[in-house]
Amino acid sequence: MNLSKVRLVVTDMDGTLLNTNHEVSPLFLQLFQKLIKHDIIFVAASGRPYYGMVEKLSEIKDNMIFVAENGGLAIHQNSVFLSNPINENNLKRIITIISTVENAHPVFCTRNRAYVMSRSQQLLNLLSEYYHNYKVINDTNEIKDEVYKVALFHEESSEKYIYPHIKELESNFKVKLSATHWVDISENIANKGTAIKQIQQRYNISTEETLAFGDYNNDLEMLESAYFSFAMENAHPKVKSTARFQTKSNNDLGVETVLQKLLLEKEK
């Protein structure tokens, strides 16, 4: 494996770059500065909202690209260069279908705020980490902003209790299991892979010059956009079968381990 030609590094956040305490390691921040010196473009790609990503990576936010909401929104230095919100009529259809799913707690994700139709205490506790700028609403008519993603939360398992009931939406929308408790719905074009391909075109970077890390099913298209695709040790089985390579878990500095190898080859 020769990483010396890599010009673009892309990583998911939760379960990948962040440890289980949702922290970025000091080692990563050190390695990041070296990546920049080698003119490597760095992209954080997450199901998180843009404002939540910036909060986690505030020290380095001006030197990287953010792909938020599973690829629905991409921003570089406060400039939006990709925006794929859910069409208004499509959103109405999604709302109609998800309203029939028992114990599904919807979160409507806009650029600057999340709107929540739930009183689940477990969900509300999680929102302080993932969507800290949120508002609890009683009616979706209260949402006046463009919605990029509808995230459905289940207190036990989204894969078991939500996904089977909304699978029919896959013919028209991107439906992705993004974590144990979450399944996300967005426009078909809005995925991490589409965003990465646009970045590759923008900077004239090939698949063979791209390195990507992921752990869950919302990372699949992104991993397919990179020759050097790495599944975390803690990844979903489908991610492990898609990625060409595997690294250590997010708690064992799996991303950092590969980045160290990359930098060693760059410095030869």
Give the CATH level 1 class of the largest domain.
Answer: Alpha Beta
Number of strands: 14
Average pLDDT over all residues: 94
Can you tell me the number of structural domains? 2
CATH superfamily of the largest domain: HAD superfamily/HAD-like
Structural class: alpha/beta
Please explain how this structure is put together.
The chain is α/β, with parallel strands linked by helices. It folds into 2 domains: 8-83 and 190-267, HAD superfamily/HAD-like (Rossmann fold, 3-Layer(aba) Sandwich); 88-187, Hypothetical Protein, Haloacid Dehalogenase-like Hydrolase, Chain: A, domain 2 (2-Layer Sandwich), CATH 3.30.1240.10. The protein is 31% helix and 24% strand. It has 10 helices and 14 strands. The strands form 2 sheets. The chain has an 8-stranded mixed beta sheet, with helices on both faces. β2 (41-45), α2 and β3 (65-68) form a beta-alpha-beta unit. α1 (26-37) packs parallel to α10 (254-266). The longest helix is centred in the C-terminal third of the chain and has 13 residues, at 254-266. It is globular. The mean pLDDT is 94. InterPro entries: Cof, HAD-like_sf, HAD-SF_hydro_IIB, HAD_sf. It comes from Hyunsoonleella pacifica. Keywords: Hydrolase. One of its GO terms (molecular function) is phosphatase activity.
